[in-house]
């Protein structure tokens, strides 16, 4: 798929999504989710404005491979039998101990209807301020947008080279996107900044004369009297 690149004064690029797909099977009501997970099957559900909820199961390993590439901002072609459904990963649950996926929600898209989703910010190039010792603080790694499915982008590249001085920053309002995309995150939110490094104060190991133990002070006084 051809990539489209839009360049603005802070050099923000928008990458069109790669195609992703995964197969799933309809999950029977009496199927035990714990047994499915032991068999390396991942319980899931797909739903949407014009899509009745369908309980699903899919290969856990295949979903993990897919998610590492698609995340939540790429359209996935979900194959259920002979039916293809365009979806986004809407929500998921993970085991709190081993951190494996234990359930996934897919949201079925409706052509011509806008959707709200998070899109990743990809910070590129190098800040001049960082070269001079500033600390790069990435305060937001993604922003929320509203967009038609056909105009959804994979990520937005943000050029860090505009951060030329200590304490300079880029706000959400500085990120320029095409008219087809509406940013929902507050425009005043700081996305990334070149923070001034904190000064480390030197601590002296020598105690002031007034803080010497009473015995030492008294000995010094006696010596002076002699």
Explain what the structure shows:
This protein is mainly β. It has two domains: 18-112, Ribosomal Protein L25, Chain P; 116-195, Ribosomal protein L25, C-terminal domain (RNA Polymerase Alpha Subunit, Chain A, domain 2, Beta Complex), CATH 2.170.120.20. Helix content is 15%, strand content 41%. The chain is built from four helices and 14 strands. It has helices at residues 33-38, 60-70, 128-131, 214-225; strands at residues 13-16, 20-26, 41-48, 51-59, 76-80, 83-94, 101-108, 115-124, 135-138, 142-147, 153-159, 169-171, 181-183, 190-195. Strands 2-4-3-7-6-5 form a six-stranded mixed beta barrel. A hairpin with a 2-residue loop joins strand 5 (76-80) and strand 6 (83-94). The radius of gyration is 28 Å and the shape is elongated. Mean pLDDT is 85; it is low at 1-12.
């Amino acid at each position: 798929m051809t990539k489209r690149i839009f360049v603005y004064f802070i050099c923000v690029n928008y990458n069109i999504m790669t195609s992703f797909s995964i197969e799933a099977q309809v999950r029977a009501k009496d199927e035990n989710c714990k047994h499915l997970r032991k068999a390396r099957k991942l319980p899931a559900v797909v739903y949407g404005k014009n899509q009745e909820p369908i309980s699903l199961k899919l290969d856990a390993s295949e979903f993990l491979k897919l998610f590492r590439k698609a995340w939540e901002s790429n359209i996935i072609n979900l194959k259920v039998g002979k039916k293809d459904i365009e979806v986004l990963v809407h929500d998921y649950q993970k085991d709190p101990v081993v951190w494996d996926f234990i359930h996934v929600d897919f949201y079925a898209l409706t052509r011509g209807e806008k959707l709200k989703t998070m899109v990743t910010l990809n910070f590129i190039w190098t800040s001049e301020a960082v070269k001079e010792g500033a600390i790069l603080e990435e305060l937001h790694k993604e922003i929320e947008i509203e967009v038609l499915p056909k105009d959804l982008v994979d990520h937005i590249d943000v050029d860090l080279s505009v951060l030329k001085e200590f304490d300079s920053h880029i706000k959400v309002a500085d990120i320029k996107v095409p008219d087809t995309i509406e940013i929902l995150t507050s425009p005043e939110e700081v996305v990334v900044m070149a923070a001034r490094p904190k000064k480390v104060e030197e601590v002296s190991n020598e105690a002031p004369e007034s803080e010497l133990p009473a015995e030492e002070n008294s000995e010094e006084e006696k010596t002076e009297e002699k």
